[in-house]
Amino acid sequence: MSSGPDAPSGARIAERARTVVPGGVNSGQRSIPGLTDLVVTGTGGARFRTADGREFTDFHAAFGPPLLGHNDPEVARAAAEAGARIGHMGVGVTEGEVQLAEQLVELIPSVEKVLLTSTGSEATFHALRVSRAATGRRLVVKFQGCYHGWHDSVSLNVISAPEKVGSHDPISTGILPEVLDATLVLPFNDSEAVRRAFAEHGHDIAAVIVEPVPHNVGALLPHQEFLTTLREETTRAGSVLVFDEVITGFRHDLGGWQSICGVTPDLTTLGKAIANGAPVGAIGGRADLMDLFSTRPGAPAFFAGTYNGHPSVVAAALATLRKLREEPVHAHVYRLGNRVRAELTALYARLGVPAVVTGHGSVFVSYFMPGPETPRTYDDLLANDASLFVGYRRKLLDHGLFELPLNLKRSHISYAHTDADVDRLLEGTEAAVKAVLAEGGARDLENASTMGGAVN
Ligand SMILES: Cc1ncc(COP(=O)(O)O)c(C=O)c1O
């Protein structure tokens, strides 16, 4: 890669980054083959700019937070005003934290009490810890294809290679085997597998954690009967049911997927769209479980975090919620999402490309596989042509359109996207798919088709 004086400034900055930041990026999920020189210099609404002077319409949306669009002016103003007025004290509580908690309790069916974290991973970590504290049990159940953050109990079986499905597939080395052994991995939407696991291990299952719509592999829409089974089996066994709504919360509905499906979990984890991009997560749920956290004197489940409830972040969340409640945000993103899904489906049919376009509301994904059935399990997704999936997204870049060029990743629409953006997405997708087909698919899929660093 060129780094001389004539090199584009993106390449020069990225090379400096690689000297001092391992891999040059601050998350393993930002290390994208083909995008190693991507340096972001500005964002606004539905767009972002790079150090090389390029502008993209953004359908990646930072993995999901900016539901209102990047640096929404009201959210940015609220965070800046709070920052000018009140610093972070790390003692006591602020009224903003109380207002935010009151709204989460009001909006989300399962939430009787709530605690703030800075990330979704912290929220899911605490959900599992408190489940073990409450039940005195060892095991947690997760589902193939779901991602719940980077901590050990759940760092396995997300985007697995076909030969890894059905056994433990850690996404990292350095996890104690005892910890991996304490996580049972089941197929999503498979009620029978859940019943079998409970028949065998129910007495030792502390928690079942699930993305009610597994969006970390695009979108696997849940069978209602599956979510109901999770509720029934956990209730019968005295296990804790955790809905990880870090993606679905606020994005699909102010009350989360639980208010859409009518199944109420014991605990809910939140993040991402709650503050339109400011770093906040939350864990909420049944008061008797939440009261086990050590924020209550003498309670057994230790809970802390220097930045929890930071005033600027809380102000961003309050401004985001205000806008989600007062403006037709969901109507807008659902309308555009439905349009994208319908028109992409028609496009692939016209091109004669086997594809299934799915998602929900503002989330969409094109899988390149025979339809028309919507995929419901990770096994179904093994039919997706990863070289076409990654390849057309790489070609979209030539059209100023950004969908993350990694296998199975979902795309997002925000309140800032317009019909004109959708028109351009459709035109660009047609050109990109034709171009990648003409080349016979993408090459160099290493690190673009599965997730994780573990070699096992
Ligand atoms: C469903 C889900 N849970 C938890 C997390 C972890 O959140 P964070 O990256 O904020 O730690 C993510 C992140 O992508 C997620 O998608």
UniProtKB/TrEMBL annotation:
Keyword Transferase attributed: yes
Entry keyword Transmembrane: no
GO molecular function, one term: transaminase activity
Span list, region Disordered: 1-28
TM spans (from-to): none
Record's keyword terms, sorted: Aminotransferase, Pyridoxal phosphate, Transferase
Cofactor(s), names only, from the UniProt record: pyridoxal 5'-phosphate
Pfam families found in the cross-reference section: Aminotran_3
PANTHER family for this protein: GLUTAMATE-1-SEMIALDEHYDE 2,1-AMINOMUTASE, GLUTAMATE-1-SEMIALDEHYDE 2,1-AMINOMUTASE 1, CHLOROPLASTIC-RELATED
Family: Belongs to the class-III pyridoxal-phosphate-dependent aminotransferase family.
Name of the featured protein: Aspartate aminotransferase family protein
